[in-house]
Each structure stands twice: as structure tokens, then as C-alpha cells.
């Protein structure tokens, strides 16, 4: 998968008729109905840690529950997760708990508060 991430995410979305989020240094989101793959590069290497994917899943799930489409929830969740990872790791290693605590700051940053 790593060698052909773009092709893989498209293929999985088409095969299963589902939105697919492929987490990585650049996170990819492909919709079930095709269309362009969304690319998010806000992440940091500190997001490759235990529990970080759980934080992303919870964030994307909450956005989905709030009424966003699966593609929008995955895309916005990946962006906020990456931004929170950057904020959490300013000057020090960051774990999943630190990333989760930085989500409100990422949300405020996106809103311009």
C-alpha cells in the first residue's frame, strides 16, 4: 500500500463502496463515489504513535455525527488532527493524549478565533 498510496485508497473506496481514509505523513481521503482524492499534509511524525489513530477516528466520527458527509468528516478530521499534532509537538515529543488536548486549539485556529 505504501508504494502506491493514491491508487490503493481509490481502489479500496471503489471496491467496498465506502469512504476510505489512509493515514500517513500525507493522509488521503477517497469517497465511495469516486471523484478527486483529498490530500492532507498537516501531519507530523509525532502522529505515528500509539493511540493517535484512535484520536483521529473519534474526531472524524464526531464530525460525521454532527452531519458532515463521510468525505468531509474524514477530510476535516484529518486536517484538524494534523494541526493538533503540530501544536501538541511544539518543542517536545507528543503522545495521543497531547494531540487530543490540542484539538480545541486547532479548532480555534481554523475558525480564526
What can you tell me about this protein's structure?
This protein has helices at 5-16, 52-65, 70-88, 96-111, and strands at 20-22, 27-30, 38-40. A three-stranded antiparallel β-sheet has the order 1-2-3, sandwiched between helices. The longest helix has 19 residues, at 70-88. The chain has one domain (2-111): Ribokinase (UDP-N-acetylmuramoyl-L-alanine:D-glutamate ligase), CATH 3.40.1190.20. By secondary structure, the chain is mostly helical.
Short précis:
The protein has 113 residues and is mainly alpha-helical.
Task: Please supply descriptive tags for the structure shown above.
113 residues; 3-stranded antiparallel β-sheet; mainly alpha; UDP-N-acetylmuramoyl-L-alanine:D-glutamate ligase
Relative strand content: 5-15%
Spatial strand arrangement across the major sheet: 1-2-3
Mind describing the biggest β-sheet? 3 strands, antiparallel
- One letter per element, helices H and strands E, the order comes to HEEEHHH
Q: What is the helix tally?
A: 4
What integer value in Å does the Rg equal?
A: 14 Å
Extended strand count = 3
CATH class: Alpha Beta
Q: Can you identify the CATH superfamily?
A: Ribokinase
In the CATH hierarchy, the architecture is 3-Layer(aba) Sandwich
Terminal residue distance: 38 Å
> What level of helicity do the residues show?
40-55%
Mean pLDDT: 93
Mass-distribution shape: globular
Q: In terms of per-residue confidence, which ranges show pLDDT below 50 for 5 or more consecutive residues? A: none
Number of domains as seen in the coordinates: 1
CATH topology-level fold name: UDP-N-acetylmuramoyl-L-alanine:D-glutamate ligase
Keywords: ATP-binding, Lyase, NAD, NADP, Nucleotide-binding
GO biological process, one term: metabolite repair
Organism: Streptomyces coelicoflavus
Domain YjeF C-terminal: 1-110
Amino acid at each position: 500500500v505504501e508504494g502506491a498510496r493514491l491508487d490503493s485508497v481509490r481502489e479500496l473506496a471503489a471496491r467496498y463502496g465506502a469512504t476510505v481514509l489512509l493515514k500517513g505523513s500525507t493522509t488521503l481521503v477517497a469517497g465511495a463515489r469516486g471523484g478527486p482524492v483529498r490530500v492532507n499534509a498537516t501531519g507530523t511524525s509525532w502522529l505515528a504513535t500509539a493511540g493517535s489513530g484512535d484520536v483521529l477516528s473519534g474526531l472524524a466520527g464526531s464530525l460525521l455525527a454532527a452531519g458532515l458527509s463521510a468525505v468531509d468528516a474524514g477530510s476535516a478530521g484529518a486536517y484538524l488532527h494534523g494541526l493538533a499534532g503540530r501544536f501538541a509537538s511544539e518543542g517536545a515529543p507528543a503522545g495521543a493524549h497531547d494531540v487530543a488536548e490540542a484539538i480545541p486549539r486547532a479548532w480555534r485556529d481554523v475558525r480564526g478565533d
